[in-house]
Specification:
Blueprint (H helix, E strand, L loop, with lengths): L1 H15 L19 H4 L4 H16 L11 H12 L12
Amino acid sequence: MQCYAKAYILDLLGSLFPDKSGLDVQLIFLPLLRDFKYAGKFSWGSVVLAYLYRELCRASKKGASEISCHLMLLQLWAWERLHIGHLKRFVTQE
């Protein structure tokens, strides 16, 4: 059961920290899955945010043509925080 759980979590980590191909999972996460109790103490949200910032920085450099992060997370964050283009601003109240 733990083997299947680790495989599922590794797949989940692969979707949160994708490479540019979008098909591979980075093996740097394997040592983090040795002990579930220890892995549960990490601040995974902070790690995902730091990874997103690093990839946005890399994508902004001259000559960069790809980005390897989960841009849906950035879009959701922007939708929740920026309130630009929300429909409720354009609906008139009578």
